[in-house]
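DM from R.C. (forwarded with permission)

"hey, sorry to bug you on a friday — could you get me a structure for this? deadline for the figure draft is monday and I only need the backbone to look sensible"
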Amino acid sequence: MKVLILTYYWPPAGGSGVQRWLKFVKYMQEFDIIPVVYTADNPSYAILDSGLENEIPESIQVLKSPIWEPYTLLSFFTRKKEIKTSAGFLQSKKSLFSKFSSHIRANYFIPDARMFWIKPSVKFLETYLNENPIDLIISSGPPHSLHKIALELKKKTGIKWISDFRDPWTDIDYFHQLPLSLSAKKKHFTMEKEVLTNADAVLVVGKTMCQKYLGFNNNTYVITNGYDIALNEQEVKLDTDFTITHIGMMNEDRNPHSLWKSLSVLSKEIKGFSDHLKIQLIGEVDSSVLESIELSGLKDNVALISYLPHKEVFQYQRKSQILLLAINRVPSAKGIITGKIFEYLVAKRPILAIGPIDGDLAEILKETNSGSINAFDDIVGLSRSLKKSYQDYRGETLQIDSKDIAKYHRKELTRQLAELIKKTVKS
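My reply, with the result:
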């Protein structure tokens, strides 16, 4: 069985967006699914990780066509060689030009800045499909322009189609921050509904998103993200400092104010606490986060580390005393499951999460016994948890006894995907 996968993020792209379908493609052929990948020939990626190219199976076909993105126009006006941004990272402090460009992007590039790739992609792929039989089309978004490409292909060819949402459309964490007009919002909601109702199946990464999308399409299924690292029981030498490590972007919405306040209090209450404390922030960090840290008197305890290749990040995770997971404080917070949680699980270090205690993430932490979660403003509970962890650290007993992790391995998740593909083709 052969499937055509439409994805904007593909190696050498780095970051979380590329992982899901790179890993599915890696294992698909073991379940009698032959993948053909369609992606952009000259994309504008915010993060690069050329090492991921080594994970692409040599036998698969990767189709590429040119894409024009408005960032090239922005670079002309700003006199910079390139403008590369990550959609999920919106700076809290913006220049006048930045505010203007955000308004243009939000209200005229709908569903997103890759909209100019829709028509040429449909034309390119329609020609390909006329000459190469395909059993199913899969589109992965965001960017949701990929779903629009797949929708047009289904209308023209009648080929079955699965729309995969790595993140929700109008419920995505930063949607409320965009300077959208009422007409622009209406267009987003209309397009989202059109995609959901016309897809033969919808694939999502969490239960909360599934519950909402079931209202549009009864064939909505959950296949989470996962990990692709061997479960190594070999002991690792832990950091000598009381390290609290966060991997990934930390924007204004993800700023854990209660954590900085709790750490500040403990630094004053417990002798020696500040001397042992080391906060590692690996990835892009918003200026508002740095200001909060400085106001809390924790500036000297912070180590800022720029983006690291995927294979290096895991070493930091395994050595850390605590792994921090901060959920965006947004209306859709209950449904947010950051991709890093699954690799945190494999690292087998205590996870300290801050977010909804009744959300999808909280359920995973409970099922796997891999850590604790505190509500956004629960400074008392967070301080209590940190104090206990510090005492265990001093006694060299800070550890976690997690369980039921194997179900999140990428190979097992690909097996579930293969079953869904075969079911959808036959339906």
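R.C.: lifesaver. The first helix runs from residue 19 to 28.
me: no worries. The longest strand covers residues 34-40.
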